[in-house]
Amino acid sequence: MEASYRKVAPAIPTPISQKITLYPAEDRFFGSRPAVLVLPGGGFRELPPHEGEGYARWLSGLGIHAFVLSYRLLPDRFPAPLEDARAGLDHIRNGDHGLDVGRVGVIGSSAGGQLAGLLMTGRVLSIEEGVADPPRPDFAILAYALADLDLLPPSVVENLLGDLLPIKDELSPAKHVDASVCPTFVWATAQDPPGLPNALEWTRALAAAAVPVELHVYPGGSHGIGLADGVEYGGEPHKFIAREPHTASWTTACAAWLRREGVLAD
Q1: Among 104, 149, 198, 223, which has the highest number of CB atoms less than 10 A from its own CB?
Q2: What is the pTM of this model?
Q3: 55: DSSP letter
């Protein structure tokens, strides 16, 4: 029997401001500042603090306002996390947070990178109703981010999607890249079985669409390594926290890329 799924009308969500933890740019920075929506990974089962607070503190030190989103996890399935991510972008641009915000970007790790990719491509799912012209970021940072569900083991995809398996391709953001997608920084490690092929696919799709893209592949570090500085956040150690000094230099490369793209001033 062919799998079926139902159309889902937009739910009435918890106010997005209650799902966001704000880390403003450090006090030494003045005036209008860029902002980033932070989407941790975790396979839609958890939100690792080192990919949330960790990234946010790094961004704050660069002079970027960071908004860490606690998007909905399983058993809630799509479009719930995508609705939260869109609302997060809208909140940064139009919300009552009291900050002077310039360009707005997104950073996503692993599953959070899938969400970031759906934002980047402006994808509206066939199971959604009443969605038009969704918000999109001005720049993106993708850390071992999911590009194409076909690059994951079928059993993982089935567990992740459940009865949404018929829209697997819709939920593979790299399949929907075109020239309207924002400039993107991509990185992964060579020791990351899901991260590396997805990073390569992101780069291939972006380059094919003539989207400005920069790719970095580092030799050491497993999936989910985050800043790769070995620092714990959230009060509890996480299985993916590790210290890989060379891999940790991705933040320096990314900061240079942000300056090259004009997001940060020299």
Answers
A1: 198
A2: 0.94
A3: H
pLDDT digits (tens, 9 = 90+) for 191-250: 999 999 999 999 999 999 999 999 999 999 999 999 999 999 877 677 788 899 999 999
Q: Is residue 4 situated within a structural domain?
A: no
- Identity of the amino acid at 170: E
Q: Is residue 25 situated within a structural domain?
A: no
For residues 224 and 92, give the distance between their C-alpha atoms in angstroms, rounded to a whole number: 26
Indicate the DSSP class of residue 16: G
CATH number at residue 121: 3.40.50.1820
Q: Which amino acid, one-letter code, is at 81?
A: P
Cα–Cα distance measured from residue 142 to residue 85, given in angstroms and rounded to the nearest whole number: 15
Give Dmax over CA atoms of the chain in angstroms: 61
Q: How far apart are CA 201 and CA 207, in angstroms?
A: 10
Burial of 73 (0-12, 13-18, 19+ CB in 10 A): middle
In the chain, the number of structural domains is 1
Q: Mark out the alpha helices in 63-167 (DSSP H runs).
A: 80-94, 111-121, 154-161
Q: Among residues 220, 245, 218, 246, which one has the least CA distance to residue 231?
A: 245
Q: Where are the alpha helices (DSSP H) in 147-221?
A: 154-161, 195-208
Detail the DSSP E strand segments found in the chain.
20-23, 33-39, 65-69, 101-109, 139-143, 184-189, 213-218
pLDDT of residue 9: 52
Two tokens at 100? 């002077």
Helices (H) and strands (E) in the chain, counts: 6, 7
pLDDT of residue 12 exceeding 80, the answer is no
Predicted confidence (pLDDT) per residue in 70-111, tens digit? 999 999 999 999 999 999 999 999 989 999 999 999 999 999
